[in-house]
Design a protein that fits this description.
The chain is an alpha/beta fold. The chain has 6 helices and 5 strands. It starts with a strand and ends in a 12-residue tail after the last helix.
Length: about 160
């Protein structure tokens, strides 16, 4: 399972759900390393049957290639038979700001303008990946507990048919 989405939309919560379901989880893995990780898990003797990887804009330039790798030949070379899905989490602007609302100190002058520029860049960067996602969940208005329940009851945990 490849988990991605907007900062603050619940990527870490989603990863925790998969971890609780017995997945081997890796947070903030650069996209270029995902194929190598899959190949490592395919070696004889590996005890990893299911894995979830969070890859998002925190990876900076390392993240930008993820959408181009999916589904194309992402796993086809050297990892035939591996089943995978992409889970994308999004939310409205207010939900994405929620983690910042408890701050006691007022935002510095110009911080709002900088945040809006950053958000526009993030939307542009994530748009191709969102378009290739197998499952898109809008987390607007969901608490972490609600998102956990929603993910636990979804077929998102089923990686689907093998990649040919």
């Amino acid at each position: 399972m490849i988990i991605s989405g907007f900062s603050g939309a619940g990527n870490s919560t989603a990863m925790a759900v998969f971890e609780d379901a017995g997945y081997f989880c890796v947070d903030n893995l650069p996209s270029e390393m995902i194929r190598s990780l899959v190949e490592l898990f395919m070696h004889e003797g590996s005890k990893v049957a299911r894995a979830a990887v969070v890859s998002d804009v925190r990876g900076g330039s390392y993240f930008e290639g993820l959408a181009a790798m999916l589904p194309g030949d992402f796993l086809a070379r050297g990892a035939r038979g591996v089943r995978f899905r992409v889970l994308f989490l999004e939310a409205d602007e207010q939900t994405l700001l929620t983690p910042l609302q408890g701050d006691a100190a007022p935002a510095p002058a110009g911080a709002e303008r900088q945040r809006r520029r950053r958000d526009r860049r993030e939307h542009r960067t994530l748009a191709p990946l969102r378009g290739r996602a197998d499952v898109v969940i809008d987390t607007t208005g969901l608490t972490a507990a609600m998102l956990r329940r929603k993910l636990a009851g979804r077929p998102a945990a089923d990686p689907g048919p093998p990649v040919a």
